[in-house]
Amino acid sequence: LTPYTQEANIFDMVDAIGQQDGSKAVRLLTELQRDGAAPLYLLSMVVRQFRILVQVADQMSLGLGKDEIAKAIGLHPFPTQKAMEQCRRWRMSDLDAAYDKLLATDLAIKTGKLPDDLALDLLVVELSQRR
Question: pTM of the predicted model, to two decimals?
Fold first, then answer.
């Protein structure tokens, strides 16, 4: 049961980032870190969330609906609907800037410029700020 609970928290955390709910995102990140989640795994899940948001935003700009988008990007309709709701909070330029922050965080962790936990904390705070 523990891995499932951890997975649910990871999805809740990335959803909180997508919803720009900073306090919830930071709280969930702290819980995941406390429970021993690997920093690079957490980062990969945040990257995954933004990849989905970019794909969904792109498909929404073409005027496609939930089912068409889900089929086009190979995602179940339920997370597609959640991503569509989150995309309404983001401009494409903000999503592009988020990718730059994701890359910078990955490099900071892998080159040792910042400790893993600090790099993730800073990233989550930056990405989950309301625009």
Answer: 0.91
